[in-house]
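Request: Could I get any protein with tokenized structure?
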Amino acid sequence: MKIILSILLILSSVVAFAQKKNRSYYSGLGKEIANEKLKVYLDSLKTSLLTDTVNFKRSDLVHTSTGTRNTKLTSPLIKVNGKFSYKLDIIEGNKVAEFTEQLLDYELIDRVAVVEPKASQAIYGSLGEHVTILITTKKTRKFNPQVAGLVLDKKSGYGDNFSQRKQGEILLSH
């Protein structure tokens, strides 16, 4: 009887660990937003991102071999499912609106965690110098990650929108 109880205890521990491990692409990286606060957080994030687009100017962008950055505005680094990375301060308002409508949909999102600036910069370098928002979508919901200027690498399945240089804009070297 003790052996059976020990085996059951071990099995339940293994199952609990596996469930916790698969719970999110970002387990333990940031402060998770509580489920009951998630809708309010997403609405606030959408408002903040859309408000920032009012001040967007292409002339504030600097293009280098490592990507595009905004010299005046700052947006969080947003990572979705560990595969897709977005900076929204380097794109025009219509693309930001498209992103907020399609990827910040409460019905699509399973979890959100926020990585504070120090940890964010340690993990993601200059891209994470402010804050990083880690989003895990519901496995049962499909979405198109190719919004906000994201370029998808067909081979790896990963993508980002870090290069927003248009024809005729100067590319600076480091």
In short: DSSP finds four helices and ten strands in the chain. The longest helix spans residues 2-22. The first strand starts at residue 31 and ends at 32. The chain has a mean pLDDT of 84.
